[in-house]
Amino acid sequence: MEFISTAFNDVDFSTGSGLPKEYSVRNVALVKYPPVRRQKEDTCGAYAVLTAIEWRLALKLRLQPCTLPKFDMHNFERQGETETFKIRGYGIWDVSNNTEEKHEDLIKILKLEIYRHGPIVVQFLPDENYMADKTGKNIYTGPTSPLIKKIINGKERPISHIIVLTGWRTQDNLDCFEYQNSWGKKFGEASGIPGYGLISVDLIQGNEIGVPIV
Fold first, then answer.
1. DSSP string, 87-127
2. Does 209 have pLDDT greater than 80?
3. What is the rounded CA–CA span in Å between residue 59 and residue 69?
4. Residue 176's Cα: distance from chain center in Å?
5. Is the dihedral of CA 159, 140, 43, 128 positive or negative?
């Protein structure tokens, strides 16, 4: 696959050195952005997958004809008690005991993937405050109220919200991923971009990532 970033020669993809402090796929020239959509209930996953694939097709092919892409939402291997996560081209990452050092490595890998190939789908556990923030006025840094739960197969379980990581930046002294949401254009107050939000990198875990293979 070709690189999508205009300055990729400045980055060492074996170590991650040279990555810019701020980046967004929205700043790649000659690309028609996928639209900001407004989902119906429980459809965030479908919208996120569609949007990520649209982004990667636009970035890779500049909207030229292509074959249908594949999508891999959960790419796991279990070896005994160890759960590992694979991101193509970057090796195997143990997510069963996520230390701070390993999490930093994972974040670097995700930035490299976004920079090199395009957006990534992730899921996280939203709380009531997040779900009530329909304008995206806050950077999501983790639960400050009860998690959203539903009855699934007779048991009450937390439910995930699924978004598309499109870049990263530091804002209000927080390291954040920029993401495209599916709550319409009124969402986006914190990011300053209609339809986009900001989430702390600390909330992104290896077992909650999907990588479209385009």
1. -TTS-EEE-SS--HHHHHHHHHHHHHHHHHT--EEEEE--B
2. no
3. 13
4. 11
5. positive
Cα–Cα nearest to 179, from 140, 152, 134: 140
pLDDT reading at 69 higher than 50:
no
Q: Which of 123, 122, 107 is nearest to 211 (CA)?
A: 122
What is the tens place of the pLDDT at every residue in 150-164?
898 899 998 889 999
Phi, psi of 46 (to 5 degrees): -65, -40
Q: With residue 53 as reference, give the H or E element that holds it.
A: helix 44-61
Look-up of token digits 């996953």: 45
| Tokens 């379980």 found at | 157
Stretch (H or E) spanning 155: strand 155-158
Question: Helix and strand tally (H, E) in the chain?
Answer: 3, 12
Q: DSSP secondary structure string, 119-170?
A: -EEEEE--BHHHHH-TT--S-B-S-SSPBPEEEETTEEEE--EEEEEEEEEE
Residues in the chain: 214
- In this structure, the number of other CB atoms found within 10 A of the CB of residue 108 comes to 15
Most confident range, picked from 62-66, 100-104, 121-125, 173-177: 173-177
Q: Which amino acid is at 19?
A: L
